Amino acid sequence: MAKAKKQTARGRKQDRARVAGGQKYEVAYEAKKTGRSASAVKKAVKKVGSSRKKVEWKLKGR
């Protein structure tokens, strides 16, 4: 059986560029970071997609 590949720096970067709306810890992190509620973060993810930049932009009221 093949050995599992180690995650590359590119993979980690791509993962950090997204907000997983279904992951409680990611929603909580983004809520704390932006000073908004978890439900506001979930709504932003649903509205603009999972891109972290777009979600933060939406949460800042722009």
Automatic annotation (TrEMBL):
One Pfam family recorded for the sequence: DUF3606
Feature: compositional bias, Basic residues: 1-11, 43-52
Matches recorded under InterPro entries: DUF3606 (IPR022037)
Ranges for region Disordered: 1-20, 43-62
UniProt biased composition (Basic and acidic residues): 53-62
The protein's name in its UniProt record: DUF3606 domain-containing protein
The organism of origin for this protein: Bradyrhizobium nitroreducens
Source species taxonomy: Bacteria, Pseudomonadati, Pseudomonadota, Alphaproteobacteria, Hyphomicrobiales
